[in-house]
Amino acid sequence: MSEGVAYHVAPPGFTKDQWEEFMEEGFLIIEDALTPEEVEYYLNAIEELAANDPKYDPTKTYSPSHVVAKHPAFTELIDHPRHVGYVYDVYGELLKLHLSQVFIRPKGGWHNMWHPDGARAVPYGVFSPELPLQIKVGYWLTDLPRPKMGNFVYMPGSHRLHDFEAYDTHRSVPGERILCCRAGTMTLMHASLWHRVEPNESDVARKNIFLAYCPSWVCEADRFQCDPEWLKTLNREQRIIMRSYRGAYDRTKPPAEDFPLFLDRETGADSDPEANPQVALHRRKRRTWVEKTMGIPYEGPLASLYHRRRQRQGLEVPTGEPVED
Questions:
Q1: In the chain, count of helices (H) and strands (E)?
Q2: Region 98-108: what's the mean pLDDT?
């Protein structure tokens, strides 16, 4: 680590119960994540952003992107401890902000059909059947006590599917869940989850913030590069998470000065206890919280096939979760 640099411990993230719910449902709801004062703070920021945008039309859905560079209130969210620990648990030292958006959905505005986030012709799930290649954090700033208020709708567990019967339609599907929540709710969504948006038939404009995160080697969704002058205004963690590298390969192998992004939540160390100190810090394998929680290394269903084959051959099974027949 560089001398004189103030490193920070990773903020809190998933509990084991939250992780199990997230992986089962593809969606996690955290009520009262924001105080009423924080809700008002972000609502004011959205209103300021809209008021200064000549493209804003209050009768139409408004959804500007790369908003972290457009208002200080959203810049603060890049590494906000309220949520960044959750996404760091999955992406670890290669965490990147994929997309930042705000939405204003007025009565009669445009609304989404059924879709997953990310690639469509060859979905994320083809390459990563279990772990999400993108997680979307949602901040809900408007009370949504009933349906037909521009509500978010999702099919629980559908992140395991590469296609969906109602794809590209607005059709209601048995088993879907309509998000009715209080202002101040935070949600986490697995990018492969199938979801849509209901029409807004109320007189209340739905307002919310979305921040999507991914590994550094997945392409950005709302920018090619960040303004260098704006980057200078960010703190160290924010600058790293934006991953505005000039060298394309840096997204896969970030420069040494970008390690560690955070210190370990439990030990306060910059690497794992068993790491080889002869390997440069930025090249050391560092386990994510998911790996430490689910097995070392993280082993999905396909790993069990490999283990069973080794057992049949009388060979040692690598360290990890016990193999169950």
A1: 9, 8
A2: 95
